[in-house]
Amino acid sequence: MLEDAPSSQWGVAKWSKAPDSDSGIRRFESYRPSHPSQSGPALRGAFKTGFTQNSTRAFFPFVDHDRDAGACYRLAGEEEGNGLNYGTVKVLLAEGNPQVREAIKTALGESGFLAVSETGNLHAVHDAVTDGGLDLLICDAGLGADDIAELVFRVRHHQAGTNPFISIIVLTADTALEKVRRIIESGADDLLVKPLSVQLLLDRIRHLVEINRQFMVTSDYIGPPRPELVLSGVVGAPRMDVPNPVRAKAVDGSDAASLQRAIDNAALQVNEHKMERHAIQIRDLVDAIVPMYEKKPPDESVVLLLERLLYVSEDISRRLKGTRFAHVSELCLTMLGLARSIGAKPMFADEKDLQLLPKLSQAISRSFLPEEDAAEQLAHDIARTVDKRQPKER
Fold first, then answer.
1. Pick the residue with more confidence: 286 or 44?
2. Residues 6+ away with beta carbon under 8 Å from 207
């Protein structure tokens, strides 16, 4: 049922109740003008399918059909004087279906997004993220769900691009539990299920602008708080305010340089939190690994623990460079060497390596405590102990 428009300058448009079979988006169906000189069928012919919307009605400004029909319109829900200026927000829209991609791009343009790039190619997404400068990524998991999850994970862990705080919305038609879990655990801000509601997408972008954005940092995860996930180290994991690039430009009017400074400062804080969580996980892993060797040979599950210890030792060593915890690097590199040595023959670990693991893990954990003034000397002492015995093993 159509309702009266809110003022004499607006008409009412009706949208199809069922989404389009190809694009999954509701289409413009009919228009009833608020001005008697305007013809609904004439406007419908002029607008055709140029408008997309999910609600059953939308308001458009009165236009002179003879002069500029279709040149001036407005999506329902877009408020005048809302203070949002999306004009400088850099968006990458990655969607495999050309019709869906065009519909979303049109809706974004109508909402004020002027810097929207589009692609249906996963390689182009990688290139755009690596090149930097993105504020918002809207990406279809259909381009490669596992690859998308891996890319988001790398972005959040500052392994791809210059901004780990890009706002990321993933679209998916595949609701298989494992696929959904991987996307959520990658650190995406939002996951929307297709067929897509354009209005819902716009609403979620608006929500991302309005929230006080926080990230949770664990040894396994960096991203929006996900307390419901079974992630290692969630208990006690720190949450911190992080830059919101879309809000910074749309509300605060931040320029690229000042935004990048905020991103760099927050990234340093996230990096420190990450190292502290890694130190805790190294301790927990060692506490689980060493007792397993009391049984000869140990259970095969020790291999997975050693692989995780190797990864965490590598990652913390990479993150330590240039930080105030650089003195811990020697300890972590030593741990990395031991993890590789034991992992090479996991069923026949050297007893001396096993004896060193608890000492190393405790020293690494203590090194991140502010009251441990002797941590640096302790790092050197243990590292020298390992160095002395390495030539004898060769």
1. 286
2. none
SS3 373: coil
- Tokens at 63, concatenated: 């236009």
Give the lowest-confidence range in 54-63, 76-85, 130-139, 215-224: 54-63
Place of tokens 């002027």: 114
How many CA within 13 A on the CB side of residue 351? 3
Least confident stretch, 90-104, 168-182, 192-206, 215-229: 215-229
Q: According to the model, what pLDDT value does residue 211 have? A: 87
Across the strands, what pairs with 223? 216
Angle between helix axes 375-393 and 351-367 (nearest 10 degrees) is: 160
How long a stretch of residues is the chain?
A: 394
Report CA dihedral (323, 325, 331, 332) to the nearest 10 degrees.
-50
Say how far apart CA 303 and CA 122 lie, in whole Å: 33
User: Residue 58: which H helix or E strand, with range?
Assistant: strand 57-61
